[in-house]
Amino acid sequence: MQKNIKRLWPLFLLPTFAAFVIGFIIPFIQGVYLSFCKFQTVNKATFVGLSNYVKAFADTQFSHAFWFTVRFTVVSTLLINILALIIALFLTRGIKGTNLFRTVFFMPNLIGGIVLGYIWQILLNCVLSLLGKPLLALDSTYGYWGLIILMCWQQIGYMMIIYIAGLQSIPNDYMEAAKIDGATTWQTLWHVKLPNLMPSITICSFLSLTNSFKLFDQNLALTAGEPAHMSEMLALNIYNTFYVRSGIQWKGIGQAKAVIFCIIVVLISLIQLKATRSKEVQQ
């Protein structure tokens, strides 16, 4: 009976594999092909070669969105991971009400990005109005930091849970040995906790990096790229190119931007994973 089941294992994989091929592989290949075409609908596409990519790279809004996204990703990734780790360190010291604090910090992650964007848009605009400052849609600097605050508020709780799990998995023998050797709190953190937290750091860095770079719904709800596309990130720029700009040529250009975007995200993810995993090997 067991031998028969083992022989049938490809059959159990077939539904998942078919869904993956139909839902991802085929659309991805078709999307890459369409990035070399001028089209209004998928069935009416005219091959134009690298023209779409040339126009995509020449688009100043696209280049501005790229550098805006890079700046946002670097700052948000650092802040999310540093603050999440600090909170995790405090919540693993046996403080009363730890479970309540964990729940409170994690709850923002359960709210949809669009909803969070509109909530924070109202809150931040009210604060800026009281301070006599320009609203988010009128100043890209305030829009930028509004996105940073929103992203941190949503993501810190989730990363905190991962860091707490990593801290709790560190053997007590290591901590006791460090205490016996007279290590200070800082020395214990730097030489014992952080090296053993590298797997958690790898996961959190990967998630916060990719989530920040691919941010769309919060950007759409909070600033919508205003003023004059100055707070527009890559995903929103691709959306606006494909769906908002009029003209048959823009769909092909938007598709080319999407392919470029995909390649950038994959490369960044691979570089980050290699960099952090190399630290794990050295421990």
Sheet of most strands:
2 strands, antiparallel
Strand line-up across the major sheet: 1-2
Low-confidence stretches: none
- Tell me the series of helices and strands, N- to C-terminal: HHEEHHHHHHHHHHH
Structural class: mainly alpha
Q: Give a count of the beta strands, DSSP E runs of length 2 or more.
A: 2
Characterize the overall form. Answer: globular
Q: Into which percent range does the helicity of residues fall? A: over 70%
Count of runs of 4 or more consecutive helical residues? 13
> What is the CA–CA distance across the termini?
45 Å
Determine Rg (CA atoms, Å): 23 Å
Q: What's the average pLDDT? A: 84
Strand content: under 5%
Oligomer: single chain
Give me some keywords for this one:
3% strand; 2 strands; mainly alpha; 76% helix; two-stranded antiparallel sheet; 283 residues
Could you walk me through the main structural features you see in this protein, from its secondary elements to its overall organization?
This protein starts with a helix and ends with a helix. The chain is globular and about 70 Å long. It is mainly α and 283 residues long. Helix 10 (198-213) packs antiparallel against helix 13. A hairpin with a 2-residue loop joins strand 1 (37-41) and strand 2 (44-47). The protein is built from 13 helices and 2 strands, in the order H-H-E-E-H-H-H-H-H-H-H-H-H-H-H. The chain has a two-stranded antiparallel sheet.
